[in-house]
Amino acid sequence: MFDAHNLNLYKYTPVGDITVMALCVIMTLLVWQTYIYKNRNFRMIITILCSIFVASATDIMYEVFLSSDHIKPMPTYIFRAVHHIILTIVLVLYINYLHEPLWVP
């Protein structure tokens, strides 16, 4: 299905997505240790980091299904749609997170 010989198929490599996933885990651990008060902003940052992690995983799965021998259209479309929906949710969460520090009414 997805082997090491096809890592550069259509000029895609999962290195960027795996790096993002590793950075999300590290940042989650750092934020978890440094936040003293586990308030709304803390929960929002953790949700953003987890959403980015899941978005990277869905992008990898999309590419796996796309590069398989027998392309099944439904899982491919589902993973791509989930990827874009999660990235949109991350954007909305980030805007809501910046709402308070920027004193937007």
Short summary:
The protein has helices at 15-34, 40-66, 73-99. The chain is an all-alpha fold. It has one domain.
Task: Summarize the structure in words.
With 105 residues, the chain is mostly helical. The longest helix has 27 residues, at 40-66. The chain has helices at 15-34, 40-66, 73-99. The mean pLDDT is 86. The protein has one domain. The protein has three helices and no strands. Helix 1 (15-34) packs antiparallel against helix 2 and helix 2 packs antiparallel against helix 3.
What are the SSEs and their pairings?
Elements (H helix, E strand, L loop, with lengths): L14 H20 L5 H27 L6 H27 L6
Helix pairs in contact: 1-2, 2-3
Give descriptors for this structure.
single chain, 105 residues, mainly alpha, 3 helices, 0% strand, elongated
- Radius of gyration over all CA atoms, rounded: 17 Å
Query: Percent of residues in beta strands?
Result: under 5%
Q: How far apart, in Å, are the first and last alpha carbons? A: 51 Å
Taken in chain order, the helices and strands follow as HHH
How would you describe the shape?
elongated
**Total of domains:** 1
Q: How would a crystallographer describe the biggest sheet?
A: none
> Which runs of at least 5 residues are low in confidence (pLDDT < 50)?
none
Structural class: mainly alpha
Rounded average pLDDT: 86
Our count of helices gives 3
In helices, the fraction of residues equals over 70%
Extended strand count: 0
